[in-house]
Write a structure and sequence with these properties.
This protein is mainly alpha-helical and about 180 residues long. The protein is built from eight helices and two strands. Helix 3 runs antiparallel to helix 4.
Length: about 180
Amino acid sequence: MAEGSVSVAEVEASFQKFAVHGDTKATGKEMNGKNFVKLCKECHIIDGKNVTTTDVDIVFSKVKAKSARVITFEQFTQALTELAPKRFKGKSKEEALQQLYGLIVGKEPANIGITKVAKAAAVDRLTDTTKYTGSHKERFDESGKGKGKSGREDIPDTSGYVSAYKGSGTYDEKVKEA
């Protein structure tokens, strides 16, 4: 990448993408500390040796207003100006800043580590309703769909039939005899 080829507008576009990441109310004009650290990690400004997450947090606290929790694009460029010589030791401030801008340009927040639905054989086996037995079997219909409340409640049979009633004839006949 040639020196001075990175425009501030390109850096600002990346700033806006990271500023709105994970925040539905964000406008893209201000960035919080969490997203600033995310930008620094994903753009490889944090290298683990020269620049750490602690350094990034300290610089963020330095450039933001006392009571504010966010930084503007101007404060963001100020923070990068402070981080550039740390990241690229032995280079002039301008040269280091341009290389830092080169790392940021064209980047957008990635959804790394987002939880995916587990599709293991064990999970399939545990959620297969056709293999359920006993009282659990009563909770699902033939298609495997849950019955809801009717599958969980024990609804009494009010038909009047008494199972295991021993004797000849009906109950009414017995009462008449007595």
